[in-house]
Amino acid sequence: MKLKDIKPNPNNPRVLRDDKFQKLKQSIAEFPKMLSLRPMVIDENNVVLGGNMRLRALQELGFNDIDEAWVKRSSDLTEEEKKRFIIADNVAFGEWDWDTLANDWEVVDLEAWGLDIPQFDERGEIDYSDKNKEVDIEDLEGLMTINLKYNEEDYWKVKEQLSKVAHTPEQAVWKLLKNE
């Protein structure tokens, strides 16, 4: 199949930045057979529903023709099922483009499909505070801090895993402790 015939989804709400994208490119370069095990999913118009970053990586790596097994067609999905697939396929990977999600998806659907929607502050940044809880300065007395040191690669791995559990590392650790 000609790679140029596959179209990236213009409303893709998921991105891989910098080092994670470079790691994806390296992984594909070293082990392209993985794409037959985790193929890109395209609709009847050859628009990517799952695998936009893989498509971009293949393009940057200079691929022109790709094995048909690296692509799966999903021409029997309804428009609603396509939107759901785009979210469900990516719940645990990369970073979300919150503007695209806000414009193209319903919050109720996103939450039903397993996406945790953060609250945003007036600057459009994720607000990690608990607005329903008043903070009393006396509550802060006796708090202690744990400092952990990682090399950059391990830091991002830990941060990614913690983000799967909660919005902040502190919340994630607390949730993990409560689940003992």
What attributes does this structure have?
two-stranded antiparallel ribbon, 2 domains, mainly alpha, 7 strands, 180 residues, three-stranded mixed sheet, 8 helices
Order of strands, main sheet, comes to: 3-2-4
Helix content: 40-55%
Structural class assignment: mainly alpha
- Number-wise, the strands total 7
Mean pLDDT: 79
* Broad shape: globular
| Secondary-structure element series | EHHEEHEHEHHEEHH
Number of domains: 2
Major sheet description: 3 strands, mixed
Radius of gyration: 20 Å
Q: Please, how many helices? A: 8
Low-confidence stretches: 131-137
- Strand % is 5-15%
**Could you tell me how far the N terminus lies from the C terminus, measured between alpha carbons in angstroms?**
50 Å
Compile the SSE list and pairings.
Elements: E1 14-15, H1 18-30, H2 34-37, E2 40-42, E3 48-50, H3 52-60, E4 71-73, H4 79-88, E5 95-96, H5 98-104, H6 107-112, E6 119-120, E7 126-127, H7 152-165, H8 169-178
Parallel strand pairs: 2-4
Antiparallel strand pairs: 1-5, 2-3, 6-7
Helix pairs in contact: 1-3, 7-8
